[in-house]
Automatic annotation (TrEMBL):
Natural source organism: Albula goreensis
InterPro entries: Ribosom_reg
Family stated for the protein in its record: Belongs to the RRS1 family.
Gene Ontology cellular component annotations, sorted alphabetically: nucleolus; preribosome, large subunit precursor
Protein name: Ribosome biogenesis regulatory protein
Keyword vocabulary terms for this entry: Nucleus, Ribosome biogenesis
Length: 349
């Protein structure tokens, strides 16, 4: 390693100090165009090709970027400033240059079912005033919401209809009807959103129709069983009830974004197996396969051996198995009658 003199070290230190303390005044032949709203600067000066070829390209580009940034900062310091939380903040003007969008423009919202119906019938939307006259309180009140006009929920007396049960609680009936209206409006709102997004509306339980199909009833029973605390583990099955379809384990796919370390390791393992000359042997799998083959072979041998055992003539349909006929064998037995004793067949002398 060559020794460095003191003069070289001092010269290098002075050069570094000069680089840090460059002048904020930059001279250009043509003035830059600034868009301070977007914090942009447009330099129309042609680059010095001779200097670009003689000097290091990275140093030349770095120096050019530093000079243009210095000019942009000088212009930003001319803007009006204010102090916010002990920090000086400049008020940027409106941008003049139109930059391209990072993402595509949003698509127009598809019309709802009511908007399509109103367009078909020529119904125009009329803006209603927020205040209406309340004849009961003799004052202007809101049309909707808290302290609205004609608010029947604040009545302390309700007239019982002639056809209604006199013992029925009309206040509870009115509250129940209001909750049902709110739930129905919410359901319609969600259906409109699903229809606009072209998504199939999932049905839970029984559909609000007069007649339900067999599949709908089965689905409702399955949802009711799975709604318990044990997720239907201890629910008994009905007689002749079939297992619900599409309730097995679903395939899990690897995520498209996030940590790819596991996927990378799997791909490397596959390439390692493909690149290796010797086949990869799973010992446990091979041993289990061999044991199964031996068990199957021994079971087939036992089955064949069991079929060969037994006396001759034990199967019907063979010659000499029926009573009253003479058999060919030396030990065949002939039966004819109840009290008659069996006799042995004599062979030829």
């Amino acid at each position: 390693m060559a020794a460095c003199s003191i003069e070289d070290v001092l010269a290098k230190a002075e050069k570094d100090e000069a680089e840090k303390l460059k002048s904020i005044t930059v001279v250009k032949e043509l003035d830059l165009e600034f868009d301070l709203g977007n914090m942009l600067a447009f330099d129309k000066n042609p680059p010095d090709i001779r200097e670009f070829r003689q000097k290091n390209k990275d140093d030349f580009l770095r120096s050019l970027a530093r000079d243009n940034t210095q000019l942009l900062i000088n212009e930003m310091w001319k803007l009006p400033t204010e102090r916010v939380d002990e920090v000086i903040v400049a008020k940027l003007p409106e941008p003049t240059a139109r930059l391209p969008r990072e993402k595509p423009a949003p698509k127009p919202r598809p019309p709802t079912k009511w908007e399509e119906f109103a367009k078909l019938k020529g119904i125009q939307k009329k803006k209603k005033t927020n205040l209406v006259w309340d004849d009961v309180h003799k004052e202007w009140r809101r049309r909707w919401g808290y302290k609205r006009a004609k608010d029947d929920t604040k009545e302390w007396l309700i007239e019982v209809p002639e056809t209604a049960d006199p013992n029925e609680d009309q206040f509870a009936k009115r509250n129940k009807a209001k909750k049902e209206r709110v739930a129905k409006n919410e359901l319609n709102r969600l259906r409109n959103i699903a229809r606009a997004q072209k998504i199939k509306v999932p049905g839970v339980g029984l559909a609000p129709t007069e007649q339900q199909s067999k599949s709908e009833l089965g689905k409702a029973i399955h949802v009711a069983k799975m709604s318990t605390a044990s997720v239907g583990k201890f629910q008994e099955r009905l007689p002749k009830e079939k297992a619900p379809k599409n309730t097995g384990k679903k395939r899990k796919f690897q995520p498209l974004i996030g940590d790819f370390s596991s996927e990378k390791q799997k791909q490397l393992d596959i390439l390692k197996i493909m690149d290796s000359k010797k086949p990869r042997l799973d010992i446990n799998k091979a041993v289990n396969k061999q044991m199964r083959e031996e068990d199957m072979e021994s079971a087939s041998k036992k089955k064949k051996g069991a079929g060969k055992k037994g006396r001759k003539g034990s199967f019907p349909g063979k010659k000499g198995n029926f009573p009253g006929k003479k058999g060919k064998g030396a030990g065949s037995v002939v039966k004819s009658g109840k009290n008659r004793k069996p006799r042995m067949k004599q062979g030829k002398r």
